[in-house]
């Protein structure tokens, strides 16, 4: 299952109200490290969809969400459970590091 695209229109329903933990990838198309992380995020989405919901937020298209999370640098990865941030990291991360964030 490909990573979802989160927007301010679906954020409440897809993220805040999610019964599963949610991994959010804040990114932009012009960001080199984001392009390195993107295939890893997609891979996690494909492999772990039973235990985590995975989505991406384009900071250029969704500046309100980026601001809401205080995103200053990208990529920023955020893990939310029960509508609350439980883990976050700035910068490119390995697949194992991202999985550890999710398992928290």
From TrEMBL:
Magnesium in keyword set: no
GO BP terms, alphabetized: cell redox homeostasis
Database matches in InterPro entries: Thioredoxin, Thioredoxin-like_sf, Thioredoxin_CS, Thioredoxin_domain
GO cellular component assignments: cytosol
This protein's UniProt keywords: Disulfide bond, Electron transport, Redox-active center, Transport
Chain ranges of the Thioredoxin domain: 1-104
Cysteines paired by S-S bonds: 31-34
Gene Ontology MF terms: protein-disulfide reductase activity
Family, per entry: Belongs to the thioredoxin family.
PANTHER family: GEO12009P1
Protein name per UniProt: Thioredoxin
Species of origin: Acetanaerobacterium elongatum
């Amino acid at each position: 299952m490909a990573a979802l695209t989160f927007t301010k229109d679906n954020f409440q329903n897809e993220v805040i109200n999610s019964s599963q933990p949610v991994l959010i990838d804040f990114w932009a198309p012009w960001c080199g490290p984001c392009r390195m992380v993107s295939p890893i995020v997609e891979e996690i989405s494909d492999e772990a969809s039973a235990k985590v919901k995975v989505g991406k937020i384009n900071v250029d298209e969704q500046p309100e969400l980026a601001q809401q999370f205080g995103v200053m640098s990208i990529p920023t990865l955020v893990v939310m459970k029960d509508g609350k941030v439980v883990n976050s990291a700035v910068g490119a991360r390995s697949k194992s590091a991202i999985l550890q964030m999710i398992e928290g």
